[in-house]
Amino acid sequence: MRDSEIQSRIAEALLGTLGTSPDWSTADPYVLRHLAAHATAAGRLEELADDPGYLVHADPTRLLDVLGTVAADEHPLARTYLRAAHHLRDAGPHARAGILHTTAVEDEPDAAAHLPVTGARPLTARWAHLSPTDFHRTLTGHTGSVKALALTAMPSGGLLLASGGDDHTVRLWDPATASAYTTLTGHTGSVSALTFLPLPDGTMSLASAGADRTIRTWDLATGVGSILTGHTGSMNALAHATLSDGTAVLAGAGDEGNIRLWNLAKGTLHKLVYSSGPVTALVFVPLPDGTVLLAAAGSDETVRLRDPVTNSLTALRGHSGRVTTLAVTTLPDGTPLLASAGYDHTVRLWDPATATARGTYPCSTYWTDALAFVTLPDGTLSLADAAGLRHTIQLRDTGTGRVHIILSGHTGQSGHTASVNALRSTTSADGGALLVSAGEDGTIRLWDPVTTSTRPTTGVGPVGAVALTTLPDGTSLLACGGGDQDIRLWDPATGDHQEPTPDITLTGHDDEVHALAFTTLPGGAPLLASAAGDHTVRLWNPGADPPTPTTLATGDGSLYALAFTTLPTGAPLLAGAGWDYTIRLWKPADATTAPVAQVSLTSPVYALVFVTLPDGTLSLASAGDERAIRLWDPWRPSISTYTTLTGHTGNVHALAFTTLPDGTPLLASAGADPTIRLWNPASGTHTTLEGHTKPVHALTFTTLPDGTPLLASGGDDHTVRLWNPATRRALQTTPVSSAVHALAATGPHLAAGTTRGVIVFDVNQP
């Protein structure tokens, strides 16, 4: 009997323990751990990959060991699982169900309808309107920007990936299973260069270098590193080769401007090569005659080819700016092909054997940080490039220069898209192309450039402001604003895994919208206020046709914060502040656009909220760069009459206020430190909520159907978190695909503005 038949019978036997309608929650632990391996050996894993119950309950580590064998482009549930894998390994079945559902709502609409939605979780994704990301897997673990990658084939036939970055660590990964092997520590600064070193016995070691001016070579079996010293500046580049005279060397260079070649066998300096300025990139180029050239580039706008044995030097000129990156490959006929790019917005191809140019192509409106040659399954040779401040990766045909694939997925943590710092490529075990990228968002992404997402392009960009209100008929209205300067209005109840269509778009701002706030006028009509980088605050009647805004008098600075309250007369009072260091108050119902009061400060304001104390006293809370919260009397705002709440150790980005059922006022604050503080503004006392791992940008209070108040928070750690403020207990952490910069809630809906767009959640009774 063949092995596949044996494995098929084992898989059948294991499935038989579950009956005809499997309840995976009651499955034997052996089944959940080992069924994936047996089904793979039997050629039946695709059946399980289409079963949402199995995906939720199966052991993630064991499943991810084999799930990569399933054709992701044909199985949306498997594709969703692979997208979310970095969140699933440490989660239980209940949490995995929520993570998979949220991932599907964000990026895999074909899978969303098939994934279970459980009412046992207080927060469930309803719909999302996001800029698209192509299918990829994500590796997380670095706590800062990732600056360097190295990728190699191991003697065993598998692949090994190394990464390094601002957290001073080098991490080793298995790209096949998207899992971590180990972390190498020892560097005392950012790691910016990596290369694998083949050893005479057929094994591999790894070299790393960076800001601490050292090169470390690592024994991958023991994790022990040895140090090469002598460089006098930060290291930017490493490359290795065996020279034509048989010497195995490691080249290192950086800001000092000199290139040092180290003899790997002896661990000593082999040669010192002087350069004409800081070096940003190194690659060795093998020629057909066996000669090995060292290509170096940097601030002198030149690519220099040097024979390390004879010291002959050739300069490749044409760039008109700093050259930041190099890549090399060998064509089928044995001819080397060298690519260079940098600050002049071009990619240049060279024949190093003849020192001639083979093509020049425009690549971006930004500088280029990384290049990698990619061979696609059909044999097409492409060149991948990643540009600074552009979150996409472009693949162009090296023969025509035409861009034929664009990959998007890296997202920023500051509200902007994140730059990609490093690229590496190889051929995977199944013959496909594997492209690896790393960037400022602290992640590593694994791409199959041919397999892309099914999500349509929507044109939505970062959403930095959201607001929700309840209309007189009981329905809700959501407003979103961000980098495209427009404000879009939605019905938050619509979508249901469909792309929502905006009912109205409000245009008028000519810079990014930073803040939105709703209030209700005495007659019941909604009034929307918006603040933007164009130094204006505008008032909108969303129901007007056309919705023409009223512009309020402001100062000379971007506006970042708005807050409404309702006065005893029923009239609204609006507060606004930002980078002009001034808080202003307006009465929107009055005929005048001038502020009724204002106070000048000494630093920017990022957050405002009105606070009502138990005795009915109205205060205005403000926060920003001063790491403190100030409580003002809105009728007598004065630099000498405020109360200060201190405790944060970083800038404060967000404020929210509610009154608990027992009448206790509660003020929430959050920011860069990255804690959440819950204050009693009457007494000045506070407690601290910890859980976020990066700066928190957004807070809002909401209420469960039974009246229980909840606090929602979001930030740069790509999570939306729910807390019970009365018990100070975390209720749910929901990972999302990008940084969260705004939150708003009303009734059963919670809206999150992210660097990719907007997500709407249902708030459920657990």
UniProtKB/TrEMBL annotation:
CDD domains attached to this UniProt entry: WD40 (cd00200)
Membrane-spanning segments: none
InterPro entries cross-referenced by the UniProt entry: Quinoprot_gluc/sorb_DH_b-prop, Quinoprotein_ADH-like_sf, WD40/YVTN_repeat-like_dom_sf, WD40_PAC1, WD40_repeat_CS, WD40_rpt, WD_LIS1/nudF_dynein_reg
Gene3D superfamilies (UniProt xref): YVTN repeat-like/Quinoprotein amine dehydrogenase
Spans of repeat WD: 139-183, 184-223, 316-360, 413-448, 506-541, 645-689, 689-733
Keywords from the UniProt entry: Repeat, WD repeat
Name the UniProt record assigns to this protein: WD40 repeat domain-containing protein
